[in-house]
Design a protein that fits this description.
This protein is an alpha/beta fold. The protein has two domains: 146 residues, Aspartate Aminotransferase, domain 1 (Alpha-Beta Complex); 241 residues, Type I PLP-dependent aspartate aminotransferase-like (Major domain) (Aspartate Aminotransferase, domain 2, 3-Layer(aba) Sandwich). It has 13 helices and twelve strands. The strands form three sheets. The protein has a seven-stranded mixed β-sheet with strand order 2-8-7-6-5-3-4, sandwiched between helices. Strands 9-10-12 form a three-stranded antiparallel β-sheet. Strands 1-11 form a two-stranded parallel sheet. β5, α6 and β6 form a beta-alpha-beta unit. It is globular and about 80 Å long. Bound molecules: pyridoxal-5'-phosphate (PLP). Pyridoxal-5'-phosphate (PLP) binds next to α3.
């Protein structure tokens, strides 16, 4: 087993060797610009791009013409939210979203507010679940888009999008979902779920960083979204700029592999995750599971360890790569992270927010690694609790009885 053990697959994933192999020829041998229509270099590149578009579409049950390549989920989310906002200037149009979105949705929503739109946050329950009935109640004549994260990047909760989609469709409101954590991991069928816009990114599914896609139902993106860039006519003029051919080929191959292997992979990871969870719960008390007990990504485990600081726990397990909350929230010029707004939104008390750890398992996680991480966590939590007068005081009585 190689140390440190990587168990932060929600932050990013390594590129699958098969993905890298598919990409490699497109750097040197087949380097053409897919917009070059006058020679075989261009045709070859264009063919590779269209092949990849088909692979992405197949993963989602979409039509290839409904797939637009972007630089990742951040850009796709910006295109969906700002793109819709720009189509409704000065109309006080309304966006419905949730407090547990990724920053790449929350910040474009903030931008839309500055542009005069109204953003309404739907409530989530203690598992991070949105009630479809609450969506129905919140929709008004001014609602133009509902944006709900498919499965959360911290707590893994999977939303009831089928029910939500039925509601948005019947009201003629667009449904956007950030599926960066879901695509390639759990079944995503845009037609069955009545999704109009969907964001995904390659680097969360064993593809390269800096490439992703936006699914646009019907394929006529410019009819419902304003582009954010001006330039050439690539991607129907909706997303101009010379296409990242190796990246696109990598994204396509990553989607293809996920489509083929998803069922077996999620079964295996679910078993490993349950082994990690069960092992920790067996040996430690005062552990709290964050997120939905069953409607959860199979490779996600978010736990709070009572009487232990998450940061201290991380530091005492230097050969285990996990995170407290989302990687993307920990920046902050002031240094110290403020604690997860996702855990705050599900009503977790502050001490449990500060003691949370996110484990993310993935394609290359082994049983040996899971057992090692379990041992390290148990050992680290025990020794930190030995230093906690509060834990000692509250447990002395109990053990005496
Ligand atoms: C990683 C992630 C993003 C950002 O994706 P990039 O491709 O890094 O821009 C957006 N939303 C969610 C839910 C994510 O997990």
């Amino acid at each position: 087993m190689k140390l440190p053990v990587y168990m932060d697959y929600h932050a990013t994933t390594p590129v699958d060797p098969r993905v890298l192999a598919a990409m490699t020829p497109y750097f040197m041998e087949k380097f053409g610009n897919p917009s070059s229509r006058t020679h075989s270099f261009g045709w070859q590149a264009a063919e590779a791009v269209e092949n990849a578009r088909g692979q992405v579409a197949r993963l989602l049950g979409a039509d290839p013409k409904e797939i637009y390549f972007t630089s990742g989920a951040t850009e796709s989310n910006n295109l969906a939210i700002k793109g819709v906002a720009l189509m409704h200037p000065g109309q006080r149009a309304q966006i419905l979203t949730t407090p547990i979105e990724h920053k790449a949705v929350l910040d474009p929503c903030k931008w839309a507010e500055w542009q005069g739109m109204e953003v309404v946050f739907l409530p989530v329950d203690r598992h991070g679940m949105v009630d479809p009935a609450a969506v129905e109640e919140a929709i008004t004549e001014r609602t133009v888009i509902v944006s709900i994260i498919f499965s959360n990047n911290e707590i893994g909760t999977i939303q009831r999008l089928r029910d939500i989609g039925r509601i948005t469709r019947s009201h003629g409101v667009l449904l956007h979902t950030d599926a960066a954590q879901a695509a390639g991991k759990i079944p995503v069928d845009v037609a069955a779920l009545h999704i109009d816009l969907l964001s995904l990114t390659a680097h969360k599914m064993y593809g390269p960083k800096g490439i992703g896609a936006l699914y646009v139902r019907g394929g006529d993106a410019r009819e419902i979204l304003s582009p954010l860039l001006d330039g050439g006519g690539q991607e129907g003029g909706f997303r101009p700029g010379t296409l990242n051919v190796p990246g696109i080929v990598g994204l396509g191959e990553a989607c293809h592999i996920c489509e083929q292997e998803m069922a077996a992979e999620s079964e295996r990871l679910g078993r490993l995750r349950d082994r990690l969870q069960g092992g920790i719960f067996n040996e430690l008390d005062e552990v709290h599971l964050n997120g939905h007990p069953t409607e959860r990504l199979p490779h996600n485990l978010n736990l709070s360890f009572g009487y232990v600081e998450g940061e201290a726990l991380l530091m005492s397990m230097s050969d285990v790569a996990v995170s407290t909350g989302a990687a993307c929230n920990s920046a902050g010029a002031a240094g110290r992270s403020k604690g997860s707004y996702v855990l705050e939104a599900i009503g977790l008390p502050d001490d449990l927010i500060q003691s949370s750890i996110r484990f993310g398992l993935g394609r290359f996680t082994t049983e040996e690694e899971v057992d090692y991480v379990k041992e390290r966590v148990v050992e680290a939590v025990r020794s930190l609790r030995e230093l906690s007068p509060q834990y000692a005081a509250e447990h002395a009585n109990r053990s005496r009885r």
